[in-house]
Amino acid sequence: MKFLWPELLWLLASVPLLVAGYVMLLRRRKRAALQYGSFAVLKNAQGAAVGMRRFVPPLLLLLALIALLLAVARPAAVIMLPTKHEMVILAMDTSSSMRATDVKPTRLAAAQAAAKAFIEKLPQSTRVGIVSFAGTAALVQTPTQSREDVIEAIDRFQVQRGTAVGSGIVIALAAIFPGAGIDEATLLYGRANRRGYSLDEARAPEKESKSVAPGSYQEAAIVLLTDGQATTGPDSLEAARMAAERGVRIYTVGIGTAAGETIGYEGWSMRVRLDEETLKGIANATHGDYFYAGNAKDLMKVYAALSSRLTVERKDTEIGSLFAAAAAILVLIAAALSMLWFNRIL
């Protein structure tokens, strides 16, 4: 827990002064009772009739005061709150390296199974879109609430050569903001589709859009899975910055080995390596998270965690009203006990 106005916590210094004043008042009452010789008053001052109960209402009032002073300092805490994600775009790598069998039965089959389980756990009201990317990227399923259509799209994946991570992000953004003027053709092919080309000039035809804080767009999110490093298409981190400017979070999932592995395909071999640094950079730039999955079981756990992240989120929330409510309850209890025990209000 933290306080947005911590400088007001100095008001708590008044609490010991109030306690000292209360003690002085009790002593004065005791001296007055001895002076006038009233046995009844003396008996009440010494607490013989009511014991320690007479201190309970004042103690509750003191706790209520402390709660109010804390509320003035505007306490805030991280609370799990339901999110408003109305759309999730699942961008999946379908490059040739996804045929590797280090994740059983293959990386692609394990990714497909985990993705289906992930989709089933999302709220039915959430629309899901599917983007596949290899040498280029395509929206293979427009955002829909039909889980059957989404699963069929995942089952239709076909592996191809190349890994265009940036293209996958651009296509996912175009699916989230269909009317924002994102020129996919120019962004993806405007620079001869060479590896890691800059998006700065290609973004010229795009409609002017006001940048927002990264991670602030709550209506949609992107989940991106890949097992290798980008070999073609726009720069991945620049594409991530496009998402960050629109407030869209990207949750990245890495599958495979960071050390690399040689994979044979159609008579030729290639060495693939998981580019964790870039995937972490994409997640950090958009205020998302990076997950690593080394096997099929880990991949299932990752998607289960993602499902939780997309339905609830940790958010700094002011809780001063809770302290104020607690203070009100303490005051009511103190008044009730005072009426019950002493036939007076405090």
Features:
346 residues; alpha/beta; Rossmann fold; 6-stranded mixed beta sheet; 3-stranded antiparallel beta sheet; 11 strands
Content of β-strand: 15-25%
- Roughly what percent helix? 40-55%
Oligomeric grouping of the chains: single chain
Helical segment tally? 11
CATH homologous superfamily annotation of the largest domain: von Willebrand factor, type A domain
Mean model confidence by pLDDT: 82
Q: Outline, from the CA principal axes?
A: elongated
Write the CATH fold name of the largest domain.
Rossmann fold
N-C termini distance: 33 Å
**Number of domains as seen in the coordinates:** 2
Radius of gyration from the alpha-carbon trace, in angstroms: 31 Å
Summed up:
The protein has 346 residues and is α/β, with parallel strands linked by helices. The protein contains 11 helices and 11 strands.
Task: Describe the 3D structure.
- Helix content is 43%, strand content 19%.
- The chain is of the alpha/beta class.
- A 6-stranded mixed beta sheet has the order 5-4-3-6-7-10, sandwiched between helices. Strands 1-2-11 form a 3-stranded antiparallel beta sheet.
- Helix 8 links the parallel strand 6 and strand 7 (249-255).
- The radius of gyration is 31 Å and the shape is elongated.
- The chain starts with a strand and ends with a helix.
